[in-house]
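step=encode ok
step=design start
structure_in=
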């Protein structure tokens, strides 16, 4: 299973469980699902953007002034970086 497939499954699970503001179990489940989705999205490599002679993280926009092609993760938000096509 890929990260994207897991994200899709978690989003479907969240829809199927519905939302009941009075239920602590449902609230906890939905928060847990959201946290898992966020972690999977950060673990999915994204190519940084390049503009004005600087690289920027595609997730948070953090700007790097140096060539950071050796870094595997954004130092600001933790996004996994993808340097190759």
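sequence_out=
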């Amino acid at each position: 299973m890929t990260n994207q497939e897991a994200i899709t499954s978690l989003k479907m699970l969240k829809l199927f469980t519905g939302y009941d503001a009075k239920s602590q179990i449902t609230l906890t489940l939905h928060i847990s699902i959201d946290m898992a989705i966020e972690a999977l999205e950060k673990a999915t490599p994204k190519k940084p953007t390049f503009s004005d002679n600087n690289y920027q993280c595609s997730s948070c926009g953090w700007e790097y002034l140096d060539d950071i092609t050796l870094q595997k993760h954004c130092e600001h938000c933790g996004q996994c970086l993808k340097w190759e096509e």
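step=design ok
step=annotate ok -> The longest strand covers residues 49-51.
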